[in-house]
Each structure stands twice: as structure tokens, then as C-alpha cells.
From TrEMBL, chain A:
The lineage of its organism: Eukaryota, Metazoa, Chordata, Craniata, Vertebrata. Keywords: Centromere, Chromosome, Nucleus. GO terms for cellular component: chromosome, centromeric region; nucleus. Its main location: nucleus. Belongs to the CENP-L/IML3 family. Pfam families: CENP-L. It comes from the Eukaryota. This is Centromere protein L. It is found in: Chromosome, Centromere; Nucleus. The gene is Cenpl.
From TrEMBL, chain B:
GO terms for cellular component: chromosome, centromeric region; nucleus. Gene3D superfamilies: P-loop containing nucleotide triphosphate hydrolases. Pfam families: CENP-M (PF11111). InterPro entries: Centromere_Cenp-M, P-loop_NTPase. The lineage of its organism: Eukaryota, Metazoa, Chordata, Craniata, Vertebrata. This is Centromere protein M. It is found in: Chromosome, Centromere; Nucleus. Signal peptide: none annotated. Keywords: Centromere, Chromosome, Nucleus. It comes from the Eukaryota.
Length: 288, 131
């Protein structure tokens, strides 16, 4: 369960666009090299057709598929699958290195609910995260959809889910909480859109959560509601604005940040499995 | 008659016609609307809860903007023995259907439908919920 920090370092501090993916049909772990070749050929063919959007320097795209054995929750989960696109400019010297331009990884952390309910020949990796140009995401996505008959959907994160995240993450035990707990709200129905950013000292937020949480290791909806109500009440006392009537669009803590459009950044390696477990749960409920 | 919260201002009490039905509107995107309804409920006379109150939850079409748990609203309906209706005001068809439903309920509560009282209607609705 403990992921090797070296291998997973590249996952941290990147803004990942999150999707839910339906189970892959006919995926064979032994054929990763073949898949990489096929995907590379597909991308090259699409570029020939003029569909990829790389104007200027001629770039060859190299595809690498690998397994991230450490990224899983239990033995029932499939190991994570990493897709990496690198570019090497044509006509450059032999010593030129491949420059990574796009990353995408499929994973499942405690996704037993889904894997237990699918028939044979299906591989469950319900969470997909990508970083890099949207055009590459579209290419890779459409190849996977064609090859494994799966379906990608952007993960939408509701204000309710964001509240859970901020309560959970603000309450995590950390040696040193370096960033403030921040909540960003957007106010609806105004002539000009208004964003409100509410930043709280991380120690204050943790202290508040500690008074609310009754059983360590367990979180209930009531506790999340009380935590949020305290924050809203405090804000109202000072600014006479009811944040509960605004739309919570983004939450940010030392551990991770999440935006309602399905964009997530994981900042702390120790809590990587925890964050992925939560996202896997959201992905699975979006699929079902 | 529309109001943003209760109690209604007392100045117009003598001009106000009899109130047959109170519909509390809760926007699923706004936690504040739920809190507002909860505080307003305290100002409603107990006799209204015999079938003359109903909760209308709006915005349910947008699952991704949800800020209130559906369970919380259903529990509210149970606590106050009043039906909970769900609708999406942005869809014209649903809006019209919901309006028609409310007008029917209003007719029953005003005693205009012979043979059906507000109380018997609400217990009919509760029975179908349990089923």
C-alpha cells in the first residue's frame, strides 16, 4: 500500500484533469508494448490527417505504457496504468532526449464495488487523470474507446463533494501545514461574475475539525455540515454575506486541491492513496 | 403570495386573505435556502401541518451543483409530516407539470374538491411514498 515516493513523485503538484472510465474490455497487461506501438501509429496517422494540433516544429510522438504496481488500494484493485507521450524533434542530434509532453494514468484505489460487479474479460480502472494538451487527451481517449470499448466522462465534483474533501483534508494530521485552507465561491446571478476566496489558517481549520469529529477515522455528513456551517457563520459575522447561498467551486489545502470542473492537484505524497480512494469512489458513482 | 422568509410582516395582516397552502421552496444548490426554510418553519402554526404544507425542492436536474443531501430534505418532510416534491424549474415541461400539481393541491386544501380533505390527501401521498 505504501507507494514508492520516487516513482510517484511525478504525480504530485501537477494539475490533473479527472475522468471516470467504464471498464475496459479485452485489456491484457502482457501486451503493453503492442498497445504502445498501436497507439503511436494511431497518433501519427491522425497527425498525417492534420487532426492533431502541433503547428511549427515537426515532432515525433513516442508512446510508452507502463504499470504502476504501487498505485492500488487492495489486491482486488488492478495496478495503475500509465500512458506517457514524449516528443523528439526530427533532425536533431542523436543525443537529444525525449521530452515528455503528456501524461495519462488509469487507476483504481479500493474500487471493489465496481470490480466485483463486472463480468469476465473486463478490467476495472475507473479513474483516469491526464496532464498535457487537450488534443493529446482526445487522441489517446479515442484510441482507448475504440480499442477497449470504454467510455470517458469528465468527473464533475459537486459542492457537496467539495465540502467533504475540504473537511477531510483540513482535518488530516500534518507535521507542517504549509498552505492555508482556501475555499473559492462563485456568486450566481450577478451582472458581473463575482468570486469570493475564503482563506483560513490551516491550524485553525484543523482545530475546528478536531472539535467537530467524534470518532477518529470516521467522518459523517453531519460532521461535515457542522464544520461548513461554522465557516459560513464566521464569514457572515464579519462580512454579512451568506456563503451557503453561493456555489463552492474550488477547495485547496496542503494535501490537495480540487475544482468542480474535475481538476485536481495532489500535493502530499503521504495522502496520495487517500485522495485517490475518494476520487475512485466519485468516479464509480458517476459510472453507475 | 411570495415571501423570502417567515414570519410575514404584520402590517398587512388584516388585508391578507386566508392562507390555504404553504409551499417551502428549497434550492438544492443553496444550503442557505435550506437553513432559511428551517428557521421559517418555526413561525408556522401547527394546524398547517395537517396537510397544508409542502416542500418543493428545485434545481434537481443539476446533480453536479448539488449542495444539499436529498436525505436531509426527505427527513425534513418526515419530521413535519408534509410531502416533498422535486422539480427542475429550468425545464418548461417539468415547470408546468409541477405548477399544475401545486394548483391541484391548493384546490384540495381550499376545500374545493368534494370528498377529499387536505389531511386525507396528505396521508394518501405518504402511503404511496412508503410503497
Amino acid at each position: 500500500e505504501k507507494a514508492d515516493p520516487q516513482k510517484t513523485a511525478f504525480l504530485l503538484r501537477k494539475a490533473w484533469t479527472v475522468y471516470s472510465v467504464t471498464p475496459l474490455y479485452g485489456f491484457r497487461r502482457a501486451r503493453l508494448r503492442d498497445y504502445a506501438r498501436l497507439l503511436g501509429a494511431f497518433i501519427a496517422a491522425e497527425k498525417q490527417k492534420g487532426l492533431a494540433v502541433e503547428v511549427g516544429v515537426e515532432l515525433d510522438i513516442k508512446v510508452a505504457l507502463s504499470s504502476l504496481a504501487d498505485i492500488r488500494g487492495s489486491e482486488l484493485d488492478q495496478a495503475a496504468l500509465l500512458v506517457q507521450l514524449s516528443s523528439r524533434s526530427r533532425g536533431s542530434s542523436r543525443n537529444s532526449e525525449d521530452k515528455p509532453v503528456w501524461w495519462g494514468w488509469f487507476c483504481s484505489v479500493f474500487g471493489d464495488e465496481l470490480s466485483e460487479s463486472v463480468p469476465e474479460h473486463f478490467t476495472c480502472l475507473p479513474l483516469f487523470l491526464s496532464h498535457g494538451a487537450e488534443s493529446y487527451t482526445a487522441l489517446v481517449g479515442s484510441w482507448f474507446q475504440k480499442t477497449f470499448d470504454c467510455c470517458f466522462r469528465r468527473l464533475a465534483i459537486s459542492p457537496l463533494n467539495l465540502s467533504w474533501m475540504v473537511a477531510m483534508w483540513a482535518g488530516c494530521k500534518l507535521d507542517r501545514a504549509t498552505s492555508a485552507v482556501e475555499l473559492v465561491f462563485s456568486v450566481p446571478r450577478l451582472a458581473q461574475p463575482l468570486d469570493i476566496s475564503y482563506a483560513i489558517h490551516p491550524e485553525d481549520a484543523k482545530a475546528l475539525w478536531d472539535t467537530v469529529q467524534k470518532t477518529p477515522g470516521e467522518i459523517t455528513q453531519e460532521e461535515v455540515d457542522v464544520f461548513m456551517d461554522c465557516l459560513y457563520a464566521h464569514f457572515h459575522r464579519h462580512f454579512k454575506i451568506h456563503l451557503a447561498a453561493a456555489k463552492l467551486v474550488k477547495v485547496s489545502t496542503t494535501i490537495a486541491s480540487a475544482h468542480c470542473d474535475g481538476i485536481v492537484k495532489i500535493l502530499h505524497s503521504q495522502y496520495l492513496p487517500g485522495v485517490l480512494m475518494l476520487l475512485t469512489e466519485l468516479a464509480i458513482s458517476q459510472i453507475q | 403570495h411570495l415571501a423570502t422568509s417567515l414570519p410575514l410582516p404584520s402590517e398587512r395582516d388584516h388585508l391578507r386573505p386566508r392562507i390555504d397552502l404553504v409551499v417551502f421552496m428549497i434550492d438544492i444548490k443553496s444550503k442557505y435556502s435550506l437553513k432559511n426554510v428551517e428557521t421559517s418553519l418555526a413561525h408556522v402554526d401547527a394546524s398547517f401541518f395537517l396537510g397544508k404544507v409542502c416542500f418543493l425542492v428545485t434545481g434537481v436536474g443539476r446533480v453536479n451543483a448539488c449542495n444539499i443531501e436529498t436525505n436531509a430534505v426527505c427527513k425534513l418532510g418526515e419530521t413535519y409530516c408534509s410531502p416533498v416534491l422535486f422539480c427542475e424549474l429550468e425545464l418548461e415541461g417539468v415547470r408546468t407539470a409541477t405548477a399544475q400539481r401545486l394548483v391541484r393541491m391548493l384546490g384540495i386544501c381550499a376545500g374545493q374538491i368534494p370528498g377529499v380533505s387536505a389531511l386525507s390527501f396528505v396521508s394518501l401521498m405518504r402511503k404511496s411514498d412508503d410503497d
